[in-house]
Structures are given as structure tokens and as C-alpha cells.
Amino acid sequence: MLPIVLASSSPYRRELLQKLGLHFETHQPNINETASPGEPPKQLAQRLSAAKAQAIAHLYPRHLIIGSDQVASLDQQRLHKPGNHQAATEQLTLCSGRSVCFYTGLSLLNTRDNRQQHIIESYTVHFRQLTPEQIDYYLLIDKPYDCAGSFKAEGLGITLFEKLEGNDPNTLIGLPLIALVTLLKNEGGHLP
Predict the structure, then answer these.
(1) Annotated catalytic residue within 69, 113, 142, 168
(2) CB burial class (10 A; 0-12, 13-18, 19+) of residue 94?
(3) Residue 42 within a domain
(4) Which of 4, 102, 156, 182 stands 20 to 30 A from 163 (CA)?
(5) What's the number of CA atoms in the CB half-sphere (13 Å) around residue 111?
């Protein structure tokens, strides 16, 4: 298999990819992540994942480059990374008792022959009715200010939900590993 590069600086994606036991390097792509006017969240996630892989392709001419991007959507409105406690409080208050869909785009670019595979995975989070006290307590513990949706499902964030729907729980964290294994096998990867 060709050497693997993860086109991301996300510690969450790096940690997920390590689960596969593959040797890889990471490289942060420098792309504009602004949505085009009227661009739906699902298409944005797919476009950005492909763009991340393409952005560093010239640096890795005989590699497999993994690009991934996630867009959280509440009623087709994009939820951003909150950045601070107040914004996270507002976001979780908005999500309380509602469902948020996470679209995760995944792209695998083979730079040897310029072949690029794409998939989009969705994962839906159904929130409990949350009180202001529950939201504040949660945010003070997990501090998910760098996470779209203002939670960490792999942490205490799991207490915020009634149920989760999707094929691969890793998708919610930012890298759909089940789909990635399929894409890697399509490129001759020797995985169990």
C-alpha cells in the first residue's frame, strides 16, 4: 500500500486513524472552509473533504491522502465550533430536545494515478430536553469549545442524548473508519 497522509491537524481524527494500526503522517491543509451561497451542509462536507486532500497533493506525489470534513446541521442550518462557553451554551440551548445531523465527508486521493474516492456519511444525534443547569455543568466538565455541536460524544457529552443514529460511531467524532477501511482496500490496503 502507498504511504498514507491524513490531511488534517485534528487531534480527534489522528486518534481515530491510529485505531487502524497504520503508519501515517499528518499535514494540515490550508483551504477556505466558507460555504458557497446556498450550499447545503451535506455538499459542503463532501466538497471540503475532497479539497483538503487535493490541497496537499503536490507535496505527496505517491501517497494515499485522506481528507475528511464534518458539518453539523440543525434544520439545514450549519452549527459551527463554538469557541467559548457562551456560544456553546447558546448552541446547546438551541439543540435541546431536537435532532442534529452530522455530515462527514471522506475522500481518499491516490496521488500516484490521481484517482479520488468520495463518500458522505451521516450521523444523527437526538438531544434530551436540557436545563440551563445541565448545559452549564456539562460545558464546565468537557469544555467542548472546539467541537461542532458543542459536545464530545466520546466524553460526558453522551449524557446529553436520547439516542444516536448512524452506521459508524466514529463518524460522529470526525472520521468514518468503516468506510475508510473500504476505500483503503479499494487501493490495495491489507487490513483485516
Answers:
(1) 69
(2) middle
(3) yes
(4) 182
(5) 20
| Number of domains making up the chain | 1
Tens-digit pLDDT profile for the chain (192 aa)?
Answer: 899 999 999 999 999 999 999 999 999 999 999 999 999 999 999 999 999 999 999 999 999 999 999 999 999 889 999 999 999 999 999 999 999 999 999 999 999 999 999 999 999 999 999 999 999 999 999 999 999 899 998 889 999 999 999 999 999 999 999 999 999 999 988 787
**192 inside domain:** no
Sign of CA dihedral 140, 89, 45, 58: negative
CATH of the domain at 111: 3.90.950.10
**Annotated catalytic residue 69:** yes
Taking Cα atoms as reference points, which of 172, 190, 176, 170 lies closest to residue 4? 190
Q: Quote the DSSP letter at residue 171.
A: H
In a domain, 191, yes or no: no
Residue 110, domain member (yes or no) = yes
Domain interval for residue 51 = 4-186
Q: What letter does residue 158 receive in the DSSP assignment?
A: G
